[in-house]
Design goal:
By secondary structure, the protein is of the alpha/beta class. It has one domain (6-216): Rossmann fold, CATH 3.40.50. The protein has eight helices and eleven strands. It is globular.
Length: 218
Amino acid sequence: MSDTKKIAVILSGCGVFDGAEIHESVFTMLAIAKHGAEYTIFAPDIQQHHVVNHITGDEMNETRNVMIEAARIARGAIQPLDSYKAEDFDAILMPGGFGAAKNLSTFAFEGAESSVEEETMRVIKETHAAKKPIGALCIAPAVVAKALGKIEVTIGEDKGTADAIEKMGAIHKPTNHGEVVIDTVNKIATTPCYMLDANIIQIAEGAENVVKATLEMI
């Protein structure tokens, strides 16, 4: 029986403006592997909210599937989120990107009044109920806050986002590059990453720190 820690990584597409943030996703996977754990990648098998041209920022007249897009980052090795069982994993990690706020939830459009995608909600609640850690990067902590309410998280220093998180019943703590807020009671670790004006080295540091914090709570 292997004692290797098994981590579920939940992606929300591929690309910062309409899916998972690619740097945060890759550095999360790298940090998991560097620290001797294994990851399995999941994404909901649903349509993206919309598709954005990442050069111009304009919306494109096409539709894409969140899981198929996330499979680009996963190199095809991906599972539908509805197959996730908390009993099979030691923790979950959620990279950011607007996909977390557009596909895994409606936070980008509705703020504190947002809803969480059905399977994403189930996975967060089941993992939390099983007393297993949850790590989240960038804007993803807002999704976890909406799902769980009274938890401590960070998205960095953006006042509007922090205010919305507090309206959802969570406590927001300001942070800078690479810093992690650890809610030891609820086993939740969060870091701001690209919610700050960050460079790629700072993203790698933040991802590694939040992965380490998550693994240490297992």
